[in-house]
Design brief:
Elements (H helix, E strand, L loop, with lengths): L6 H10 L6 E3 L2 E3 L6 E5 L6 E6 L3 H17 L7 H17 L1 H12 L3 H22 L6 E3 L5 E9 L2 E5 L5 H14 L3 E5 L6 H13 L6 E3 L4 H10 L5 E5 L2 H13 L4 E5 L5 E4 L6 H13 L11 E5 L3 H14 L18 H16 L3 E4 L3 E2 L7 E2 L2 E4 L6 H4 L6 E7 L2 H9 L3 E2 L1 E5 L3 H10 L4 E4 L14 E2 L2 E2 L12 E9 L2
Parallel strand pairs: 7-8, 7-10, 8-9, 10-11, 12-13, 12-20, 13-18, 17-18, 20-21
Antiparallel strand pairs: 1-2, 3-4, 5-6, 6-24, 11-23, 14-17, 15-16, 19-22
Helix pairs in contact: 2-8, 3-5, 3-7, 4-5, 4-7, 5-6, 10-11
């Protein structure tokens, strides 16, 4: 019987792992044109994992030229759909073969617990790729009702060269939400991973070519946002950019588009998810566990984290006790320990940002009832205790701004209408949740919440078959599901006269 690797096993594997750090352009790894590099630090213990090539505008230009050449030649987009499907499935199989290596890279690079790198990030990435691969030969075009005098077809064609800029919190999974539909629809891709966590994106590039994806179709250029990211956003030969990250940076890509070639832009940005618990919730224990997991999973570094917990006043104190108990059971520590459920913050900059919000919450009058401290500093890593504030007003900074850390704000309400008002009083609209036994309350509340996803009697549950994206300043466009393909295709009408 096989046993799961222990902390010691994972640490030994970490010492032996080979890390690729170069750009991947036109089917080959290469150094950056400038020769510049940046250190890749592990938030587990603050040590340097590797020195990564820092792509700049010249490298982006070379990647875009390779992508455009491959697109124009039709080496990918003109392949029979069944063949493209087979190649993407082979790509997924290779990722499965290297799943342990990819999970370890993810944990070393970003600090998420190895248990989740394996079960959520890598498994989810592989499943996403397989799902979109299978969709390739199952999506049909349309014939319009033009009458006997004409044949009018409506076809979807690949948009061309797509630039994808992805965040550091789910490095491979968020990338695959872009990679899979971009390639499934026949486009060429230039991927700019986050500088905090570029290693898995760099690694899978060679697996893509090994699977049979032609050179130039899939390119990866690590680098800084203000250099490589901006160059991609402003490039005159990029047809579309898809971005996941903060609302602040998302707005830059809208600006870059307007100042360059009016490329299509799709954005999945920040969130401040309200998690509403009514007094008649069917299972308060389950709701409390979900509330704790919904904010402390991935150390709160998740765009749809349930960072605002809205509890009906009549049960608030009793429910908060349950949430506190669930939060205290979360085990933080070395992410390579399979028993750990809360890992590290991605880097020192983000750690200080989160601690600043914790200080702000106390200054503005919120009541700190759990955590609030930076811990395990002797390791050299970046760890913050699961933190809960009670007595929070929705006007407080910690209730309005995206913290992106393990910090929960607890608010109370009396009636459902007040909960909806509080929930919608935000610049964000990515997700929301409501817990109630009353089906009418569930339906009415779900309809009134201004969010791209609403969970009822659950939290953060979905799969690749349903779209994900937001309202308001959480962005526009959708990842996952067949709707994701809409961002990477253009509609063409062909009207043929029939004599």
């Amino acid at each position: 019987m096989m046993t799961s690797p222990s902390l010691e096993n994972w640490e030994e594997k970490a010492k032996a792992i080979r890390v690729e750090t170069r750009l991947f352009i036109n089917g080959q790894y290469r150094e950056s044109a400038s020769g510049e590099t940046f250190p890749c630090m592990s938030p587990i213990d603050g040590r340097e994992i590797a020195v990564v090539s820092a792509g700049g505008s010249e490298d982006i230009d070379q990647a875009v030229k390779a992508a455009r050449s491959a697109f124009q030649k039709g080496v990918w987009r003109k392949l029979p759909p069944a063949k493209r499907k087979r190649i993407l499935l082979a790509f997924a199989d290779l990722m499965q073969t290297h799943a342990e290596e990819l999970a370890l890279l993810e944990t070393l690079d970003m600090g998420k617990p190895i248990r989740y790198s394996q079960a959520v990030d890598i498994a989810g990435s592989i499943n996403c790729l397989r799902w979109f691969a299978e969709s390739i030969d199952k999506v049909y075009d349309e014939v319009a009702p033009a009458g006997d005098s004409a044949l009018a077809t409506i076809t979807r064609e690949p948009v061309g060269v797509v630039g994808a800029v992805v965040p550091w919190n789910f490095p491979l999974l968020m990338a695959m939400w872009k990679i899979a539909p971009v390639l499934a629809t026949g486009n060429s891709l230039v991927l700019k991973p986050a500088e905090q966590s570029p290693l898995t994106a760099i690694r899978i590039a060679s697996l893509a070519v090994e699977a049979g994806i032609p050179p130039g179709v899939f390119n990866v250029v690590p680098g800084m946002g203000e250099t490589a990211g901006q160059a991609l956003g402003r490039h005159m030969d990029v047809d579309a950019v898809t971005f996941t990250g903060s609302t602040e940076i998302g707005k830059y890509f809208l600006k870059y588009s307007g100042e360059s070639n009016m490329k299509a832009v799709s954005l999945e940005c920040g969130g401040k998810t309200p998690n509403i618990v009514m007094a008649d919730a069917p299972d308060l224990d389950a709701a409390a566990k979900s509330a704790a997991f919904g904010i402390f999973f991935n150390t709160g570094q998740i765009c749809n984290a349930g960072s605002r917990l809205l509890v009906q006043a009549s049960i608030k104190d009793k429910f908060l006790e349950k949430v506190l108990a669930a939060g205290k059971k979360m085990r933080y520590g070395n992410p390579l320990d399979p028993s750990v459920t809360v890992g590290s913050i991605v880097d020192e900059t983000q750690t200080q940002r989160v601690m600043g919000y914790i200080e702000k919450g106390a200054q503005e009058g919120a009541s700190l009832v759990l955590g609030g401290q930076q811990v395990l500093q002797e390791t050299g890593g970046f760890y913050i205790e699961p933190t809960i504030f009670d007595q929070v007003s929705n006007k407080m900074t910690i209730a309005q701004e995206e913290i992106f850390g393990p910090v929960l704000s607890v608010l109370s309400f009396t009636e459902a209408e007040q909960a909806i008002q509080i929930a919608n009083d935000s610049m964000y609209g990515l997700a929301a949740a409501v817990w109630t036994r009353d089906i009418n309350t569930a339906i009415k509340t779900s309809r009134e919440l201004r969010a791209g996803t609403v969970w009822v009697n659950c939290f953060d549950t979905s799969d690749v078959t349903v779209p994900f994206g937001g309202y308001k300043q959480s962005g526009f466009g959708r990842d996952k599901s067949l709707h994701a393909m809409e961002k990477y295709t253009q509609l063409k009408t062909t009207w043929i006269a029939v004599n």
